[in-house]
Amino acid sequence: MTHAVPPPLPAPTEIIQFPLDVDINAVVNDIVHDWAESPVLQTGNADEIQANLPKNLPRGGAPMSRVLAEIKSVAGAYRRRNAHPGFFGYVASPGLPTDPLGHAMTAALNQNVVGYPGSPGAAVTERTLIEWFRQLCDFPVGTDGVLLSGGSLANLAALAAALYDTVGEAAVRDGLVAEGHRVPIILAAESVHFSVQRAATVLGIGQNQVRSIAVDDKFRMDSNALEQTLTAAQDRDELPFCVVASAGATTTGAVDPIEAIADLCTRFGIWLHVDAAYGGAGLLATGLRPLFAGIERADSVSMDLHKWFYLAFDGSVLLYRNPDAARRVFFSQSDYVQFDQHGPAEEHMFFHLGPELSRRFRALPAYLAFRYYGADRLGHQVQYNADCVHYLAALIEAEPDLELVSPAVLSICCFRFAPVSMRADTASIDTLNRRIRNALQESGEFFLSPTDIHNRPVLRVCAISHTTQARHMEQLIEFVLASGRELL
Fold first, then answer.
1. pTM of full prediction above 0.85
2. Domain range holding 184?
């Protein structure tokens, strides 16, 4: 065949080919071999770290050995080791040994899991994972869900579904300014995660429409206070559209009384969303599962895989009891995307259930972990984390110079160094505890994130690493006592 115009040809030196000439296992092993070594956090001057990387756009390539050396000198050297047994700070997963394989496979398969048509195998894998989590929460058959980037986006999606399920489909088209709408409000404990206030901003109802419900002496939502607020809302120009219950509050680990809250939501006809981003893994543990009684009655539940399920970032499971409520918000079509809301499984679209369109194959690392380790083994590890923190609480209560501020419920507890002789001097105790927390980080053996309860600093311990053992709790107490007494 003769062409009037010659076809373009790539330069041989510019062709990109697989495989990359590098031993991926060796690179990964070099990173993870010291995942539990001290210091927990290695930090430095930002300008000094930046000096290791080229600031100008690289027009030409560099040898892979040099590129890897640059990343190791920056991200490898200056990092927080979430798998360190003394990492008790933010709710950040240690990662599992299966994760590098799962994420490498995810990148190699490179599936855009918008829905079944473009990525059939990945879609079936994700729906299988959603089914496992449906069973874990004892949700009814017909439940559906989606994997999102994290708890913040999962909470936003759930609240959007709750809002428009309450105000009606007209608001999806015309907005909340449509006449006839009362002021939509969200009800949540004062300890709720701040992603709920952020979601209220994005949804256009405003942070002030998140009404705080008082907590009891165990930092759980007070269901009597919730009932009073719901009753009062009927006499005001307000429309409560969702109650958010925390199944593992970020600060204290408290689990709200979900059963009692579900009773009230049923009585008042309000959507119940359970934010189990941190605590949801407790459903795997036989000794913790009773704390979540009533979760099966929720309208939606969010659970982060990259928290207590131990998986590396990122992934959050969002379940909807009635997925049609979400589809009414997120369903859309275009000239090149035309699938019905209720088509066959071969037309299932994940973007009908959440705000993301392009999505990587998040389900793969989680599938590998659950199939390789099994839910029971993961649950035993979750239970052991909780047992260690309960042991810590017992050690605290046995020490006269320590004060337990919040009880150990899941795998979080908060306490202070507070010698009996000076407990009346709260300002001095507060200063001591700030300095103790700094000393813990400087030691390199422990990391506790700055936390206040009732506007006073506490030493907050959150143990969600599979490397943490009871002896690390003993070492923490010894360090706090020694440091506190030395500072005195």
1. yes
2. 104-373
